[in-house]
Design a protein that fits this description.
By secondary structure, the protein is mainly alpha-helical. The chain is about 70% helix and about 0% strand. The chain contains 17 helices and no strands.
């Protein structure tokens, strides 16, 4: 029987695993591979790469499952992206981009290491306890085959764990009555979310949209006049993460305390190397 997990151990593990999954979205390799199949627009490449596991879905499905994008931005690229390249072609391009990205960030030796094989085994074991129910992005990716190469198997497992938690988090946001932009504004106000400049440059929202969301949050007592979280806003963000942890506990409880600790250690090592290699753009995270 697995021993109980220490408090927030699952969240620490997720926070070590998730960014390495996300690195390919910022990688020039994704742009190269997508352009190679005819998808040259950056937004179309992102929507296509992340949504392709669900099949040739429409804009409504992407907006619903991605949550924090302006629907008008999504609709400019979906379903048009599938007329350029079908989902199976996009998935193959994404896999090539991930492979190239991990080789560039971590190096061939790390990808062939016993630590990578161990990390893949632990992460895949955790996914055995994930649930498809009411988790569309996770469920779509769970239907994809597990790659044979350990580094791609690790990335695949990281994708499953990321989308499993993310799908649950959307339910928590809905329950808190935070619309997509309000969720982004409150996350940015914690200092741990994307900067306003980055949100406005990638999510399809305008400064007027941002200001209107900020005013709605002030009227609820969640932000003060300076745009900082009030005590109520801080408590809400804390409760959002705690409830998300609760909905996402199964895979980490299945792995057990020792497995979670080891996976966190391994994942943190890979993530640190990727960050040092320039995996993420400067200025992406912060309040300003």
């Amino acid at each position: 029987m697995n021993s109980p997990l220490p408090e927030r151990a699952a969240r620490r593990c997720h926070n070590a695993i998730n960014p390495l999954h996300s690195a390919h979205y910022f990688s020039p390799d994704l742009g190269t591979e997508m352009a190679g199949i005819g998808i040259e627009d950056r937004n179309a490449a992102y929507f296509g790469a992340r949504a392709a596991a669900m099949g040739a879905v429409g804009a409504g499905t992407v907006t619903a499952t991605f949550y924090n994008f302006n629907h008008e931005l999504v609709a400019r690229h979906v379903p048009a992206v599938w007329r350029i390249a079908p989902p199976e072609t996009v998935l193959a391009a994404r896999a090539r981009a991930v492979d190239a990205t991990l080789h560039r960030l971590l190096g061939k030796e790390a990808l062939a290491s016993k630590e990578m094989t161990e990390a893949a085994s632990l992460a895949l074991r955790a996914t055995e306890a994930c649930s498809r129910t009411a988790r569309p992005l996770y469920a779509a990716h769970a239907d994809l085959p597990v790659p044979e190469e350990p580094h791609l198997a690790y990335w695949h497992a990281a994708t499953l764990l990321r989308e499993h938690r993310g799908d649950g988090h959307l339910a928590v946001l809905l329950n808190a009555e935070l619309d997509p932009l309000e969720a982004l504004v409150t996350h940015t106000a914690t200092g741990k979310g994307m900067s306003p400049r980055w949100v406005l440059g990638t999510r399809g929202w305008s400064r007027q949209d941002w200001d209107a969301a900020t005013e709605r949050l002030r009227s609820r007592g969640l932000l003060d006049g300076e745009g900082e979280l009030t005590d109520a806003g801080t408590a809400l963000r804390r409760d959002l993460e705690t409830e998300t942890d609760r909905l996402d506990r199964a895979p980490y409880e299945h792995l057990g305390a020792a497995g979670v600790e080891r996976l966190t250690e391994l994942a943190a090592g890979f993530l640190g190397a990727a960050v040092a290699a320039g995996a993420f753009p400067a200025g992406m995270i912060g309040k300003n």
